[in-house]
Amino acid sequence: MPFAAATADQRFVLDHVVRLDEIAAADRFAAASPDVIEAVLDGVAQFAAGEWAPLLRAGDTIGAKWTPDGVKMPAGFPEAYRAYVEGGWGTIGVDEQWGGQGLPFVVQAAVLETLGTANMAFALCPTLTVGAIEALAHHGSPEQQATYLPRLATGEWTGTMNLTEPQAGSDVGALRTTATPRGDGTFAIKGTKIFISFGDHDLADNIVHLVLARTPDAPAGTRGISLFLVPKVRLDGTPNDVRVVSIEHKMGLHASPTCVLSFGDHDDCRGELIGPEFGGIRAMFTMMNNARLNVGLQGVQSAEAATQAAVAYARDRVQGARDGRAAAIVEHADVRRMLLRMKAQTMAARALVYYACGQVDRATLGDARAKERLEIMTPLAKAHATDIGNEVASLGIQVHGGMGYVEETGAAQFFRDARITPIYEGTNGIQAADLVGRKLGLSNGGAFADLIADMRTEAQAPALVRLIDACEAVGRRLQGANADDRHAASYPFLTMLSVASCGWLMERQARVDGADRVKKVAAAFYLEQVVPEALGLEAAANADASVLYALPAEAF
Amino acid sequence: MPFAAATADQRFVLDHVVRLDEIAAADRFAAASPDVIEAVLDGVAQFAAGEWAPLLRAGDTIGAKWTPDGVKMPAGFPEAYRAYVEGGWGTIGVDEQWGGQGLPFVVQAAVLETLGTANMAFALCPTLTVGAIEALAHHGSPEQQATYLPRLATGEWTGTMNLTEPQAGSDVGALRTTATPRGDGTFAIKGTKIFISFGDHDLADNIVHLVLARTPDAPAGTRGISLFLVPKVRLDGTPNDVRVVSIEHKMGLHASPTCVLSFGDHDDCRGELIGPEFGGIRAMFTMMNNARLNVGLQGVQSAEAATQAAVAYARDRVQGARDGRAAAIVEHADVRRMLLRMKAQTMAARALVYYACGQVDRATLGDARAKERLEIMTPLAKAHATDIGNEVASLGIQVHGGMGYVEETGAAQFFRDARITPIYEGTNGIQAADLVGRKLGLSNGGAFADLIADMRTEAQAPALVRLIDACEAVGRRLQGANADDRHAASYPFLTMLSVASCGWLMERQARVDGADRVKKVAAAFYLEQVVPEALGLEAAANADASVLYALPAEAF
């Protein structure tokens, strides 16, 4: 399997989509000088190629294993993780006061992209640690921050997010795990959490579980949820009462152990409150919003990895003829259609996700408009980039033909690994609901109107202009629609607005002096062929819910 | 995993899309009386539910195994296969002179659909036998027919198709297997074939391999190919020199052993010519065209099975609230959007494939127009129905949320199994090339013009009328275009024409007196939401190849 980090495109997107120079102009991100960025991107590219990419297939074929002593990672992973810690790759985006490098979130995203393109399942571990760091940095007490952040920053300790329970998936408010005051300021945690990625492993000395639970007499639903910090190993070195009961047998992402965790089997699971009581849902969103961007980034990873593999295969595989001579399949028009689509969609997903990540940094710098832009872009980046990851991984199999269905080529792994990304961190349907439910109405619709206005200022391609107009009309209609009608249209609308955003950012890149030929051709393909497809969703986005509720549930 | 054959919809489609009464009015198909059809559909439904559906998961988790003594199927499969033979389910579509029931091809398709919805990998075995029967019935000598057809008809012996070699996949003409006259009228076969589905197994006493090979001094390319019959066990009971070297480790379809077969390792592999020397490619197309319809039918199987599982899960899984009360997820609008799309797409695929299968029977009855219609519909049925199978299986996972990614629910199996169908029997890209290369030009474009005219006569929904117009315009343009431009547009055009065909047939069904509410709602959804999406492909279908060739191969 070939692997090379997409550093050239990363840098181009940072320069011309994110406009990193504007962010680096602030004191807060003064560290992000062009030479530092270059060193970081090139360094992680080399590290990922040398240490993580070689473990890709073993991660899939061997996978993480549950044992009575906890989860064991495949051979090579602990060493490769240590190399990651020693290389300082975990510290990129962490504030300098906690031992981090203080670089922008978007630079950390680029680092995670490269790690995940090399080995997506493995990179999920640092990705989750980033979420835990965010939560503690925003909501932890000074003591908690001083105790946990330095070691989470290096990756010596890793983090998890414990939300889901068997009866509480998309409906987080239905969770039942309890947290009872122990009288010493700590809480006794009791309950079972499922789908906990890297909930146990042998990569690090400790795991910092962030756990949503209910205190006694808490109100029902999401308002009664608090966030707790539950270390696997207590600070005094004794094991906490947290047990990994099993790991899931999944279609892919085998190197990421998806754990069932049991807290407090022996009534001795100790946790500390993070932030105020009942502040759990707010803290969760701090973790989750940035985690959503990082899952969108996994869409970029799947797409980039699948594209590299398919291009290599298509250049190599001779089949049929062109101009009377035996030809590699890359010469055939329909294979080129697939490959160019893969490249264009990968670039589009990267532009969309990086753009949103850049808004995190702008918001950190106090830009209120960027904060709103981030809110509206987060569901698009999560859902659409993961949809792209899946589409591109499927095209990658198709380019390989029969060999794509045989596991040894690796094309199937990208496809299997990618399929979880539209599901976790809020299903893409939940993202669409978030877009039409909360985000369209932000600032009385001002956030949406601003986005449309910004796109319209730059857009030139006729189909893109039409799509922006269509998005505006649909969005305005949905702002006044009832909940069923809004939700009925939510997914087609999310796709339309995502493609419009991608088209806007692709066109912007193609206009740059010095944009290379691949970028210009990919942008042309995107604007001329992908954007018009999204216009085909207008009818669905304008339909009300009546057809969906024309049948009783039993008739399905 | 729930399973119930879709007999009600099958019957409805046979009545109103296929118009089976017209076919059964001919003496040749007099056996196809309404009560016989009902007995067949209900009978195979009961058989599949009782005998084949229960083996679905073992087929996936255990799978077919290679051993030094040949391929062993998982426990239960040999018995379930014997029950299939004893039930006479293999004989449905075979001519009465060979012990068959002489029912129409489309009725056999309905039987295969039910078997494959219960267990797609298993049903591939009878599907391949059907292809061997077709080839022998059309091209075999009377002796060959008398010897092989009765036992292939019952399924006591099974059939295979041996086309692919490592260097000869989509480019069949590149094959190198040799057939040298042995002086006694038979040929010594020598070569290696790959991707041979059910190339070995322990279900039947013998396997009849149909093998494409080159005689000495044969011309290069497809013109020099002949078809040979190579039994696993010779008629005298001695083993032939055919060896299964390995089976593939595939992403899915684990109960279908995909074999590497070595013919003539000991220079003692004996085969007999079927049809004339160099008649191989013609005979192959006899097998392959109907096999393509049967692969399209696998798209229906994937879609039907995935839909049933998703509907059952969505009715059962309580999450969130509606109207202030806890609700099963089937009540949520975006879940309904997914489920209704799954149902509508499944019905559309069934209508498309059955319609094409009905043309096989009309052509058998001497209807020349039906023969042309069949030719133009075959690539649509194969490619678009398998694309639907994949889309619906993916939606099935999404409806299951995180549980869809866990193998135990079975949703992932449908998704993994389905992924081969756009690849084998000619990749969907090859189907698109066939559509724009050969089929658009049939009878100087008359076959295409007839299809457009038939659709236009019935179509009423505004978006459908627009789509038919768009298809006509694109098709006419492509008839005069150069090869690169034709191929560049081939896939979007194939999808547009397929959706137009499905829309036409869905609308026809919705108009029927007595169409049930599910059909009417599914048709409305299809016409109002799916058809407009295909209009979004018009820009791609009207683009020439220039953007695809704007980059050199090395730039990808």
Automatic annotation (TrEMBL), chains A, B:
Keywords from UniProt, A to Z, are: FAD, Flavoprotein, Oxidoreductase
Pfam families according to UniProt: Acyl-CoA_dh_1, Acyl-CoA_dh_C, Acyl-CoA_dh_M, Acyl-CoA_dh_N
- InterPro entries xrefs: Acyl-CoA_dh-like_C_dom (IPR025878), Acyl-CoA_Oxase/DH_mid-dom (IPR006091), Acyl-CoA_Oxase/DH_mid-dom_sf (IPR046373), AcylCo_DH-like_C (IPR036250), AcylCo_DH/oxidase_C (IPR009075), AcylCoA_DH/ox_N (IPR013786), AcylCoA_DH/ox_N_sf (IPR037069), AcylCoA_DH/oxidase_NM_dom_sf (IPR009100)
Which residues are listed as membrane-spanning? none
Q: Which SUPFAM superfamilies match?
A: Acyl-CoA dehydrogenase C-terminal domain-like, Acyl-CoA dehydrogenase NM domain-like
Q: Does the keyword Oxidoreductase apply?
A: yes
Q: Where is the Acyl-CoA oxidase/dehydrogenase middle domain?
A: 161-265
Which residue intervals define the domain Acyl-CoA dehydrogenase/oxidase N-terminal in the entry? 38-156
In its keyword annotation, does this UniProt entry include Chaperone?
Answer: no
Q: Which Gene3D superfamilies match?
A: Acyl-CoA dehydrogenase/oxidase, N-terminal domain, Butyryl-CoA Dehydrogenase, subunit A, domain 2, Butyryl-CoA Dehydrogenase, subunit A, domain 3
Name what cofactor the protein needs: FAD
User: Boundaries of each Acetyl-CoA dehydrogenase-like C-terminal domain copy?
Assistant: 460-551
Annotated ranges, domain Acyl-CoA dehydrogenase/oxidase C-terminal: 280-435
Origin: domain of life:
Bacteria
Q: Which family does it belong to?
A: Belongs to the acyl-CoA dehydrogenase family.
Q: What is this protein called?
A: Alkylation response protein AidB-like acyl-CoA dehydrogenase
Source species, please? Answer: Sphingomonas endophytica
